[in-house]
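[Q] Does anyone have a clean structure-token version of this?
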Amino acid sequence: MTTRAPRVLFAGESWFTHRIHIKGFDSFEDSSYHEGGTELIRSLRGSGIEVEYQPSHIAADRFPFALAELQRFDAVLLSDIGANTLLLPQRTFAQSHPSANRLDLLKTYVEGGGGLLMIGGYLTFQGIQAKGCWHGTLVEAVLPVVLSATDDRCESPQGVWPTIVDPSHPVMRRLENWPRFLGYNRAALHPEARLLASVGDDPFVAVRSVGKGRSAIFASDCGPHWGPPEFQTWPGYGRLWTNLVGWLSGAGETEGA
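[A] Here you go.
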């Protein structure tokens, strides 16, 4: 592992909302912009980790198109960003210009020594109405889980608590008294992966060594709505992400998945 601070590329966790207000005969509209990864980014930066953040609409055209650009980062974090955002930059979708397949590029990046974390949400894993579209891609081929082909959300308004399966793994270091979550993405554990935490029979945190690199999943959200306020104020919140990035960026270590 390098002695310098890890460098992370974090893509996703942004959205625009457009609403119509109807008040009797009259109506009006309003629009707003939101980012859901603020606490995660603050936690990583507070631990000395360098983070380049690309909201989804920025990642569409600025996420690296070349392996050398990706290799500037020790780990890539994808959170609530659909596969189509990386497959269809404007130069391809609107102007019909060929461009690199950035999903295939991510697979090559991981196999060559990079780290990849997929965080759950409505547009990661397979997502709401299967619109995340990560199933069947080469990104799935390097994840520690096998994705569903259909809507994989497990909405849990009653709250669910993860069960710690492997407390000895570095990712799980000093993570106790986990809070409840209001949902997560269901998937099946890859045969080569290591399960660290589960909800019932479903992987919640899992890791995998792939070639010279590493991958991990966190099946719930890094913030609302699946990750309620008690998750973001949990003493282990920042430590969880720091542990994950630390493990992912240590791809040169001899320890297995």
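[Q] Thanks! Anything notable?
[A] Residues 145 and 189 are 4 Å apart (CA to CA).
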